[in-house]
Amino acid sequence: MLDIKFIREHQDIVKSAIEKKKVILDLDELILLDDKRLEILKEVESLRAEQNEASLSIMGSNAEEKSQIIKEMTLLKEDLQKKEEELKNIMMEWKKMMIEVPNVPDISVPDGESDEDNLEIRSWGDIPNFEFTPRNHIELMENLDMVDFERGVKVSGFRGYFMKNDGAQLFFALWQYFLNYFISQGYIPMIVPSLVRKESFIGTGMIPQSEDDLYKVGENEYLAGTAEVATMGYHMNEVLEKSDLPKKYISFSPCFRAEAGKHGSDVKGIIRVHEFFKIEQVILCEASHEESVKLHEEITAHVEHLMQELKLPYHVVINCGADLGLGQVKKYDIEAWMPSQNKYRETHSSSYFHDFQTRRLGIKYRDTDGKLYFVHSLNNTACATTRLPAALIENYQNADGSITIPDVLRPYMGGKEVIIKK
Questions:
Q1: Does position 263 have pLDDT exceeding 90, yes or no?
Q2: Is 122 one of the catalytic residues?
Q3: Is 349 annotated as catalytic?
Q4: Residue-level pLDDT at 63
Q5: Which site from 80, 179, 342, 419 is most exposed, i.e. has the minimal number of CB atoms within 10 Å?
Q6: β-strands 372-374, 275-285: how paired?
Q7: pLDDT higher than 80, residue 258
Q8: Residue 78's pLDDT is what?
Q9: Which residues of 355-374 are buried (b: 16+ CB within 10 A; e: fewer)?
Q10: 387 is catalytic
């Protein structure tokens, strides 16, 4: 959430952000609403002051004066109650509009209408040149008895799946490999809830922007589509010490996404599913743009290092304004090469937010001078299963349908070098 003072003082900048992110919001309407809010707030405060003054004056008054003051206080109380109710209604409308105001994107973010306008900034690895027609991950995994889609649909419904045998082992191997690396980099490992209260979704900006893609399971609870939501809620309404920053978490959780509006996209396979598992990097740092930029490059570099260790060809794109979330200042997508589709597909998303999320969540830190500031937040996928395994399986396939296991994962799969048909 942006500070209303910032919004009022930099309306042109905020309007540019609304346009760049393709958000539907009338900023002029918000300013008028805020004017009304401030006007009624001033009236409420004035009436409260009158009420307090009358309460004090009644103590030194005679019986006749007291009776008159009480009558006046009764009328005053009625006026105050009406104004407080009016203020309450205005505040509800004001808060609803405030959480829809997007964060201001970095100047380096390109313009665009969709993810088709994201710009490649670098690539790594050689695109595999198979001497045979590459199979897709669905065919490869089914032939090797790594997955069962038919029973997955029977038990779980559309996009359901069972990972089994070497498929299940591959997931565990990736989780452990990625987890060990991030622990070695000083990250705090956490297993976080998937069932999360609405406050954390509003705080991270998932609501209202992505509410259609969430599963609501209670009056005030949803299933999260990323461990970011619960991890950001971990320090909600807390004051941290500057000496404890940056806080670096590597969080694991099951994830759930309705994939609303995408029923015709990736219907088969494990690229786009309703339930999956994810390890997420989340960082809280001091309120410094330079620090956020530095850490943004760092969390992206961590993933690139691991992709290179896995020897998976990929490229990095900078997302255009229309492909940024409500709170993101800047975002990179890391996309792995998918041989069967002859294109790159997203496996990781790396973003920073300044204090957009933490202002909503009430996460502050005490600086060395004793002043309180909202921390800055960042996040990036570490390992999303199922997408990363799909890319790995397709790139490591062999002519006979077997799959070579990357060197770095073999210790986590009992030394096995190749997945073959049993």
A1: no
A2: no
A3: yes
A4: 66
A5: 342
A6: unpaired
A7: yes
A8: 85
A9: bbbbbbbebbbeeeeeeebb
A10: yes
Q: How confident is the model at residue 56 (pLDDT cuts 50, 70, 90)?
A: low
The architecture that CATH gives domain 4-98 is Orthogonal Bundle (1.10)
Amino acid making up residue 420: I
Which top CATH class is 115-419? alpha beta
Q: Which value, in Å, is the radius of gyration of the alpha carbons in the chain? A: 27
For the segment 375-391, what is each residue's pLDDT rounded down to a tens digit? 999 999 999 999 999 99
User: What pTM was computed for the model?
Assistant: 0.91
Q: Is 8 a catalytic residue?
A: no
Q: Which of 135, 159, 197, 272 is catalytic?
A: 272
Give me the catalytic one of 84, 86, 304, 346.
Answer: 346
Indicate the domain borders of the chain.
4-98, 115-419
Which residues 6+ apart lie within 8 Å of 51 measured at CB?
73, 76, 77, 80
